[in-house]
Amino acid sequence: MKRIFLILAVTALMAGCGSTTNLDEVPVVDKTGTSVLPPGANGSGSAVGKGDVTSVDVGASSQNAAIVGGPRVVYFDYDSYVIKPEFQSLIEVHARYLKADKSRKVAIEGHTDERGGREYNLALGQKRAEAVRSALGLLGVVDSQVEAVSFGKEKPAVQGSDEAAMAKNRRAEIRYK
Prior knowledge:
The chain is α+β, with helices and mostly antiparallel strands and 177 residues long.
């Protein structure tokens, strides 16, 4: 029975690797640009000189303020430091911002819920902070811009011992300096 599955798997793999497109017959379209002459150079057409247009960065500062003041918390499952897929876009936004402004620095603060001993929670909080730091690093953020620290269970976001409160406390916060 295993041989049949192995043969089927190899056949499927070989079929998936095959291509029906002949790369020698793909049409090539020449899309070279045309030059634009300055006004009055040959008496025809018009062009806008580069000196007439200045670039405007519309909303860049407000967008940056939104990133810094926006969502900055990554929540984790119980006893885990694996970043959930739903927080990947949040990390990507902060990575783009940090890559664009190399002078900005952040501290990633890892936190845990109240369960577990002090040393265990400090270690888990550090792993959560390092997980976010590592994700930012994979997206191109320079290591010197990011600091990972752990507060364990010392700074809960929400007081309480129910699951909802503990879920809010299992987090890593991105704090801009």
